Amino acid sequence: xxxxxxxxxxxxxxxxxxxxxxxxxxxxxxxxxxxxxxxxxxxxxxxxxxxxxxxxxxxxxxxxxxxxxxxxxxxxxxxxxxxxxxxxxxxxxx
Length: 94
Description:
By secondary structure, the protein is α+β, with helices and mostly antiparallel strands. The chain has 3 helices and 4 strands, in the order βαββαβα. The protein has helices at 15-23, 49-58, 80-88, and strands at residues 2-10, 28-33, 40-46, 66-73. The longest helix is centred in the middle third of the chain and has 10 residues, at 49-58. InterPro entries: Dimeric_a/b-barrel, Tscrpt_reg_AsnC/Lrp_C.
């Protein structure tokens, strides 16, 4: 599974509608509104790179209110949850 983080700049008056429209696109796992240089952060999970090439310019960038996107492809996850699961393998908690 390929994970990409898409930073989205949107028209201020369209942020909620743009966020929901992006969230409704197949392949988009999560959308967050945020403060800072970007308005929305979308987490995209797809099986192949070709899907990213279709999904981001062909769907996310075409959502009304989206002004610009910046895509970052994730190589590896270092979440606490992943680390905890790895160390719990073989541990019997009964």
